[in-house]
Every structure is written in C-alpha cells, then in structure tokens.
TrEMBL record:
Sorted UniProt keywords: Kinase, Membrane, Signal, Transferase, Transmembrane, Transmembrane helix
Extent of the signal sequence: 1-20
Residue ranges occupied by any Signal transduction histidine kinase internal region domain in the UniProt entry: 375-451
Cross-referenced InterPro entries: Bact_2-comp_sensor_kinase, Sig_transdc_His_kin_internal
Protein name: Histidine kinase
Transmembrane segments: 168-187, 199-217, 237-257, 264-282, 288-305, 312-330, 336-354
Molecular functions per Gene Ontology: kinase activity
Originating species: Archangium lansingense
Length: 561
C-alpha cells in the first residue's frame, strides 16, 4: 500500500508540474538554493526556461528540472537506467523520489566533493514505466575552471547495457584510427631521423601525431570517467591539438607541392584563426580552426593540381571528402567525424608522399649513377698520358736540380689523390675537407706553373655539408679554360639567405681571369659532374648559376642550410 501511494503521489506531482515544463530539449532552472520540499513542490515561481545545452547558473548550488522520456521496452526487459553527463556535483530526484548523487553538492569549494563527468543511474523499478517522467537536479560546480556555454552535455533514459554499449562502440573506430595514426607518425619521424627525410616527411609525421593526440583526448572521456574539474584541462589540450592539426595540415600540403606563393598559407589560415575570438565554446573554436585549415589546404592543393604537380589530385580528393564530412557537422567535427575524415585524408597524403619519395629516390639513384660515371671521366682526365708525361718530366728535372721542390710536388700530388680517395664514396663532406683538397690542388698547380696560387674564404661555415670535389671541380675548370703565369687568388664567399621559412646557404666562387686565352665555363664534363653531385646531395633543392664578370668567372651555388 505504501508503495502504491508513493507511486500515485509521484505521478500526481509529475502531472501537476508537466503543464509548466518545456519541451524535452529545454529545461527549467532556478538560480536559488531552494529547500528540497519547495524545489519538488511543482511551484513555478522563480523558474525560467533555457535550452538544455546552455544551462549554467554559476557555481551554485542551483536547481534544474526537465522531462525525460522512458522508451517502451519488451516484457521481461531489464529496468532502464538514466545516463547523465553534467559538469558538476549533483543530487537527483526522479518523480520526486531520491535517485542518487554524484559527488557532494556544496555551497563553497571546500564543502563540495567533485562528481564524475558521466554517470549511469538505475531507475526505481516502480517509477520506470514507459512515458514522461520528471527529473530534478540540485547542482554545484565551484571547481569548473572556465566559463562553459552549458554544463549539461547528455541526458537520456534507456536500457543500461545499450547505453554503455553505444558509448563504447563510438570509441572503437576512433581507437583503431588512433593506432594507425601513431604508427604513421612514428614511421615518418623515423625516416627523417634515419634517412634524412625532407621537410614534408617531418611535417607529415608531426601531423599524424597531432591528429592522434586529438583523437586520444576526445576518447579520454569515454575511456576514463574523470572528475569534472579535469574537464577544463582536457578541453584546453584538445584546443591545442586542434590548433596544431590546423597549422600542420596546410604546412604539409605546402611542403609537399612547393607552393610558390607562401603568403597564401599564412594569410588564409591566420584570418581563420583570428576569428576564433568571436566563437563561443571550445567545440566552436575547434570547428572554425579545422574549417579554416581545410579551406587553405584545398586552395593549395587546387593550385598544385593546376600547376601539374604529381599527386596533387589525390590530395585534393582526400581534402574534398574531408571537407564534405566537415560540412555535415562543423561544430562537432573534432568529436564526431574527425577520426574517419582525417584517417582517410592522412592515408591519401601518405600515399602521395610515398609516390613523391619513390620518384625522388629514382632521381637520386639516377644522379648517383651519373655522378659516378662523370667522376671516373674526371679521374681519367687527371691521369691522361699527357698530364703524366709532363708531371714525370718535371719531377725528373726537379729531382736533379731542386730536390726540395720535387719533394714538395710529390707531397702535394699525394695529398690531392689521398683526399680524392677519401671522399669519393661520400654523398656530402664538411666544407673543411673540401677546402683542404682545393689547397692541395693549388699547391700542385703552383709547382707545375712555377708560381703561387691561393684560396681565400669569407663567411663560410667549415662544418657545412657540400658534395665532394665541388670546389675542386671548379678549380680544375678554371685551370682548363685559363692560363695563369703569375700569382692569382681564388675567392670563396659564403652567406645565409632567408627564403621563407627555409634558410639556404649561398656560395659564390670567383676564378680570376688568366692571360692568353678567353674566359669560359661551358657545359663540359666538369659542369655536368657538378649538377649530378648537387642533385645527389640535395634532390631538387639546389641552384647553380655561372657566368663571366669583370673580375673573372663567377659560379653561384645555393643549397639548403
């Protein structure tokens, strides 16, 4: 009898107050900490109606009530439960009957015990009939740490197993994508570390890990039901991860396709990110940042496709599909469609990058073969019979007349070939070793010409990598095209050139004009060797220019710093 009377009383209370209650997407709130009897009485004075996802009455305590629909269930089905996601501590009443609590509601931060963000409460069997019921909450949130748009994130009644299963099933695809993104990111970073991958490889690896961090932070709530004060740090980390993804995506597309107009990337992305200050809520800010990033990236990919860049169409297709999923739910994109969209997009970018790396490897292998062949030709030219006969004749004369000069020549000649042998198998060597080879060669030529030659340097970094025999070949070209009968000085100037975000090293080599023959450079074996060696060491990232000046023949070389 007591149970029947209690049920009847609660139903009467529910029906009495239902006429004043709003739609299921709305709730009623009361900013004052009313006595429990007054809050449950159904009195409408002081209550106001707001959207459910905009509930926030300060630190509280305050009251909230709303209608909850219990779905129809089959006979013998388990008693339904109530799933609640509230950023605060709360006490709950179901049709006027105490339902449970999450943490301890308090008037001060000291009195409050923080509750968990998500809770699942079984409903009383006698009050779980299908239909509309009244939920009343007393809430406090002293330790929130930020001003949210709303603190009620989820409210639903249903079978407990189905509610828990739906929550976990939503995490499975994201966690699968998470593992793939982490592996992709570590793979590309390892390539940078082990095989000197380029900027595009580094950015792609960082982008994969930033996307993985965003997915992990989104899944954190479902994996670990944390106390509500930790929600603010999680949201800030989420915003940082979303901003990292938003910045790295267009940077990766830019690096992959070499966009010539660099300001496009920063101007479009910058304007999009500046608009974040006008957007409410973390989800809104993340949505705007990712939308701006996708827009700028699509512009860059479109421009690359129009220029005929290889792989640009694949990147454009991936970005288009991602943009389509983004448009379906822009404000909840990082939580809903991000794992699917960015998982597919990054697979497309990885495939494009793999194709580019394969073509680059083919170019590198071709350049290496050409460099080896030209190196043999240069060596044959240095050991041709005419050179050997002149060298041996000079040595014979010096041994009899000037033994000291003969010894000096033999030591200089041995130093040249010792250096050539040491660097012949290297892709790059420190500039200091190249300068040693050049000075040894000048000693040899000085002995042969009966004069003195010097090499002056200015502004060079002797630890900077250069292709082997780069300057040595320039010296050989100078002696092949000029006749020097008096002391001359060769000059090498180095400098750093700022070019966008990638500084470059510039070397200017000046060979003085000789006498008796015109100056010249040409496209002989030496010049082809230079270009092959530069392509081998810095694929597609070098420049070589040469030409006559008033002071002699100038060669300008630029390579990545």
């Amino acid at each position: 009898m007591m149970s029947s009377a209690l049920v009847a009383g609660c139903l009467a209370l529910s029906l009495a107050s239902s006429s004043a209650l709003p739609t299921p997407r709305q709730v009623q709130v009361h900013a004052e900490d009313l006595p429990v009897e007054v809050a449950l009485s159904g009195d409408a004075r002081g209550w106001r109606t707001v959207e459910r996802d905009e509930v926030h009455e300060g630190a509280g305590p305050f009251w909230m009530r709303t209608q909850v629909e219990v779905p129809v269930r089959e006979d013998g089905a388990p008693t339904p439960a109530l799933a609640l996601s509230v950023l605060g501590s709360w006490e709950a009443w179901w049709d006027g009957v105490p339902l449970g609590r999450n943490g301890q509601v308090g008037r001060t931060p000291e009195e409050e015990v923080p509750g968990r963000v998500d809770a699942l409460l079984p409903l009383p069997p006698e009050l779980s009939a299908p239909g509309t019921h009244l939920l009343t909450l007393r809430i406090s949130s002293h330790r929130l740490g930020f001003q949210p748009v709303g603190i009620v994130h989820h409210l639903r009644a249903g079978e407990a197993a189905s509610l828990a299963q739906a929550r976990m099933l939503g995490l499975v695809p994201a966690l699968c994508t998470l593992g793939a993104l982490v592996l992709m990111g570590l793979y590309h970073l390892a390539r940078v570390r082990l095989s000197h991958g380029g900027l595009a490889t580094l950015l792609l690896g960082a982008l994969c890990l930033a996307a993985a961090a965003l997915l992990l932070l989104e899944a954190w709530r479902g994996l670990a039901n944390y106390p509500y004060p930790l929600h603010a740090p999680r949201l800030r980390l989420l915003a940082a991860a979303a901003l990292a993804v938003s910045a790295l995506l267009p940077a990766t597309v830019h690096a992959a396709f070499g966009e010539p107009r660099r300001w496009l990337r920063w101007a479009g992305l910058g304007l999009g990110l500046l608009s974040l200050v006008l957007v409410r809520g973390f989800d809104g800010k993340n949505g705007v940042a990712l939308g701006a990033s996708l827009t700028v990236s699509m512009v860059l990919a479109m421009r690359a496709w129009r220029r005929g860049e290889k792989g640009a169409l694949g990147a454009l297709v991936g970005l288009g599909l991602t943009g389509t999923l983004y448009m379906l739910a822009p404000w909840g994109f990082s939580e809903l469609g991000f794992f699917l969209a960015f998982g597919g997009l990054l697979l497309c970018l990885a495939a494009v990058h793999a194709q580019q790396q394969r073509r680059q490897q083919e170019r590198l292998e071709s350049a290496t073969r050409v460099a080896e062949r030209l190196q043999l030709e240069l060596l044959k030219r240095s050991l041709q019979p005419h050179f050997l006969m002149n060298t041996l004749a000079a040595l014979s004369e010096w041994v009899e007349t000037e033994p000291a000069q003969a010894v000096r020549f033999i030591e200089a000649l041995g130093a040249v070939y010792r250096h050539l042998l040491a660097v012949s198998g290297e892709r790059t060597i420190p500039l200091a070793r190249e300068l040693e080879l050049c000075r040894a060669h000048l000693d040899v030529m000085g002995c042969r010409q009966g004069t003195a030659f010097h090499l002056e340097t200015a502004g060079v970094d002797i630890e900077a990598p250069v292709p082997p025999a780069l300057l040595h070949t320039l010296l050989e070209n100078a002696f092949s095209h000029n006749r020097y009968v008096s002391p001359h000085t060769f000059r090498l100037e180095g400098s750093l050139v700022a070019e966008g975000t990638r500084p470059r090293r510039r070397y200017i080599f000046l060979a003085p004009s000789g006498t008796g023959t015109p100056r010249g450079g040409g496209e002989g074996t030496g010049s082809r060797y230079l270009r092959a060696r530069l392509e081998e060491a810095f694929p597609g990232a070098w420049r070589l220019e040469d030409g006559p000046t008033e002071a002699g023949w100038m060669t300008r070389v630029e390579v990545p710093a």
